[in-house]
Write a structure and sequence with these properties.
Layout (H helix, E strand, L loop, with lengths): L3 E6 L10 E3 L4 E16 L2 E15 L7 E8 L25 E4 L5 E2 L24 H4 L11 E10 L6 H12 L10 E4 L12 E5 L14 E18 L6 E17 L12 E14 L28
Parallel strand pairs: 1-4, 3-5, 10-12, 11-13
Antiparallel strand pairs: 2-3, 3-4, 6-7, 6-9, 8-13, 9-10, 11-12
Length: 317
């Protein structure tokens, strides 16, 4: 329920705030000249309303203009609720950021207030080089927006003197490839709708296969197996609701990791400063629409003869 309070500001008059007309000056005092409405809202809707009314004198010889303004302010219903920019209401707007959050133990989804901290892909540095130090500054260009597929690639040069074993090599490729580590954890969630509530976990979709684990069983001399050289985030979408105006929503998501066997000349102290390898890394985000096409259904034509008495056309036969 919304509660409203009204604050009236005016110059004191003998008749308080009631409007009154002065015949001598042909002036009406305490006329409403401006009304300002302010509505407070949270995830559950409007929770408060405030009206500010301004009064002013008017004369019959001048045109009178009354203005009305309306403003909305987000409020917090509890300390656990986070506010964030919406990407639709409720339908996702194409090219608006995909909302990302992390499910907490309290079953509340924690959403970063800055959209640049949502779903991202790695962005190459100058010359197409995988530069881990440039990911934070240029990450806004790698922001994932609804309905737009993204593919980025870069070249990672690894100095073998800095790598002691295959585990260290796998760590380096992950750091260069995974722009946002939080979206590769079991608690990672994508908003099902553009305005999903952080207090309703069912309005958030888990990212399947989010945990990235290494398998060293394929390591052999001079080769490292299970090295992640690519990652693809598949986001499954669907249009729900009325056919005339479907609601764009996310119904599923999963990570796919591309792994390869990488040949290495040496490790650590056994290498010279010139010993290095170059790896091509790729990041991709793909939107898959699984909306079913509408099927027209037409009822069969009625049988006009059925049910008519046998002698219905008797006068004409």
């Amino acid at each position: 329920t919304a509660t409203a309070t009204a604050t009236i500001t005016s110059t004191p008059t003998p008749f308080m705030c009631a409007p009154w007309f002065d015949l001598a000056s042909n002036t009406c005092f305490n006329a409403v000249s401006q009304v300002e409405w302010t509505f407070g809202f949270d995830e559950n809707g409007i929770v408060a309303a405030h009206a500010s009314v301004s009064l002013a004198p008017i004369t019959a010889s001048l045109p009178f203009v009354r203005t009305t303004t309306v403003a909305f302010e987000a409020t917090r219903s509890s300390s656990s609720v986070t506010t964030y920019p919406r990407s639709g209401n409720p339908s996702y707007i194409v090219q608006k950021p995909v909302v990302f959050g992390v499910l907490e133990d309290t079953l509340v989804v924690n959403v970063p207030s800055n959209p640049s901290d949502w779903v991202r892909v790695s962005v190459p540095g100058p010359g197409g080089i995988c530069d881990g130090t440039s990911q934070g500054a240029g990450m806004e260009k790698g922001l994932v927006v609804f309905g737009v597929n993204i593919t980025t690639g870069c070249t990672l040069t690894v100095l073998m003197q800095d790598v002691d074993d295959c585990d260290a090599l796998r760590f380096k490729t992950r750091e260069a490839l995974l722009a946002h580590r939080a979206q590769h954890t079991p608690a990672a969630r994508l908003a099902r709708y553009g305005n999903s509530s952080t207090e309703i976990p069912d309005e958030w979709v888990a990212i399947l296969d989010a945990t990235l684990e290494d398998d060293a069983s394929s390591d052999i001399p001079n080769s490292c197996g299970d090295v992640v050289v690519g990652v693809e985030l598949q986001i499954v979408t669907a249009g729900l609701g009325a056919l005339s105006r479907p609601v764009n929503s996310i119904v599923g998501a999963r990570n796919i990791y591309l792994r390869d066997i990488v040949s290495v000349p040496c490790f650590g102290a056994d290498c010279t400063p010139d010993d290095s390898i170059s790896l091509s890394l790729q990041s991709r985000v793909t939107f898959i629409d699984v909306s079913a096409a509408p099927v027209p259904v037409r009822r069969p034509n009625p049988d006009l003869i059925q049910g008519i008495p046998a002698d219905f056309f008797h006068p004409f036969t």
